[in-house]
Amino acid sequence: MRRRISLRARITIGSTIVAVLLLAGASAVVYMHLTGIVADKERAILHGITEVYRGAIEEDPGERFPPPGVKQHVAIVAPDGTERMNTFPAGLVDRVSDVIEEGPRLHHVRSGDTTFFVYVDPVETAGGTWYVLATRDTDIAEDVLSDVVRLMVLVLTVGALVFAVGSWFVAGAALRPVEQMRRSAETLVVARRGELLPVGDAHDDLADLARTLNDLLERMRAANERERQMVSDASHELRNPLAVLHAQLGLIDGADATADAAAVHDARTTLARLTRIADSLLRLSRIDAVDDVGSAAVRELVGALTDSVDALRLRSAERMPGRAVDLDFTIDIRDEEMRLRIRADDFTRVVDNLVDNALSASGRRDVRIAVAFEADCEGARLSVTDDAGGFDPEVAAHAFERFVRGRAPAYAGSGLGLAIVAALASKAGGRAVIENRQGVGATVVVTFAVVAD
Fold it and tell me: Residue limits of the HAMP domain (predicted)?
């Protein structure tokens, strides 16, 4: 089982590692720079020592050379390879020729546990090239560098500890609102209203997160409320047809064939209504669950419209024999290849539901229904106009809600057709509105958005 590490600890560890790496890099740069300074200083000192012997060689190389100062070591090699002087320490006394072969410059020569700075200075004379080598005990330079290294290690350690402690408290202060939101979220219940996550006064990322989560919480509550209301409405709407179906089936006793046939016919009609309600509820749930509504070209929608109107004419003639149903359509489009944010089958469903709603609202009267489809570069508009008497004012205000039906006794709708239309229009980037003319008729207008290139 993996051990849980808090976000505060991870921030502290990560920031401390970064700080240690930065401090270590800075310490390395400082140490390299300091080493260069020490080397330049040693070169200057040793060059000053060799200058003394350079002058003596240039004046009279045959004279005896004076001994070097305290903690100074000099080796002088004549042009013939003879060592005229060699006061080097024991570890370097036999390595003069090797150092000369490496060239005239400042050398770092290690002898045992000690590193010496050895400076080689060539002196040109008429008799040939003399070499003056100078070094000195490196205790001072080594002590300085050792002290610097110890100081850097101490600073690095203390800096890491201080930064870790500071990061711990800073991360704790920064994450305190998150902890408050977490504790508040533990006590929130989706079904309860009025309780939200705390939003700080600062306009920072945490406040934005709190506002986003509160918006999500409100939408979850609204969705939960809609689901609860739909379940309640569906239960109520299904209970009555089921009770009627149960009563109708109870009338079938086999005693009267004519009465039994009538009861079976009524039961089939009730069952068909139940099927329509269940199918409409399923369609609504699918519309709510799908984010991508698809798209279709205008010419596809025109074909779907004409096919739908032809099918509706045949269906109305079968359902309403003896009634005059004048169903016609007009089309006004600018670009057949323009695409709208709705699939052809969903567009057909919108047309069917709007025309069925107009037919149901007409009752047993003759009715005239006009379907118009217009499309331009800004979008599309589908309107269905009828002379079926219009909506009651209180019904028109809620016509696109679920299970809202007209009050006419002959109205046989399920109350879900316009709800499906409104849901599809919203998914398609448009909306559905009613232009009501009470006592005359109504026009339902549905708009659709154009798919961006």
Answer: 172-225
Structure tokens at 411: 């109205």
CB atoms within 10 A of CB 286: 10
Q: Is 264 helix (H, G, I), strand (E, B) or coil?
A: helix
Quick one: pLDDT at residue 410? 47
**Which pLDDT value is given to residue 444?**
92
- Domain enclosing residue 357, as ranges: 290-448
Query: Same structural domain for residues 137 and 202?
Result: no
Query: What's the chain's average pLDDT?
Result: 81
Structure tokens at 101: 């072969």
Which helix (H) or strand (E) segment holds residue 147: the answer is helix 139-187
Question: 389 and 336 in one domain?
Answer: yes
Query: Do residues 351 and 309 touch, judged by C-beta distance below 8 A?
Result: yes
What pLDDT sits at residue 20?
87
CB 386 within 8 A of CB 334: no
Q: How far apart are CA 218 and CA 261, in angstroms?
A: 53
Residue 177 lies in a domain: no
Task: Count the Cβ atoms, other than its own, within 10 Å of residue 413.
Answer: 20
H-assigned helices in 188-253: 205-250
Q: What pLDDT shows up at residue 299? A: 92
pTM tops 0.85: no
Q: What is the CATH number of the domain that holds 311?
A: 3.30.565.10
Please report the sign of the dihedral spanned by the C-alpha atoms of residue 385, residue 391, residue 394, residue 399: negative
DSSP secondary structure string for all residues of 294-360 = --EEHHHHHHHHHHHHHHHHHHHHHHSTT--EEEEEEEEES-TT-EESS-HHHHHHHHHHHHHHHHH
Ranges of residues in the chain with a pLDDT under 70 are 1-3, 138-143, 185-206, 226, 229-240, 280, 288-291, 320, 405-414, 453
Whether 340 contacts 301, CB under 8 Å: yes
Q: How many other β-carbons are positioned within 10 Å of the β-carbon of residue 446?
A: 25
CA distance 173 to 150: 34
In this structure, what DSSP letter does residue 386 have?
E
Residues listed for the chain: 453
Tell me the C-alpha distance between 11 and 5, whole Å: 10
State whether the Cα torsion 231-233-237-243 is positive or negative: positive
Q: How many domains does the chain have?
A: 3
Tokens representing 422? 């409104």
Q: Which sign does the torsion angle of CA 185, 189, 190, 193 carry?
A: negative
Between CA 113 and CA 115 the distance in angstroms is 7
Query: Which tokens in the block code for residue 21?
Result: 């790496």
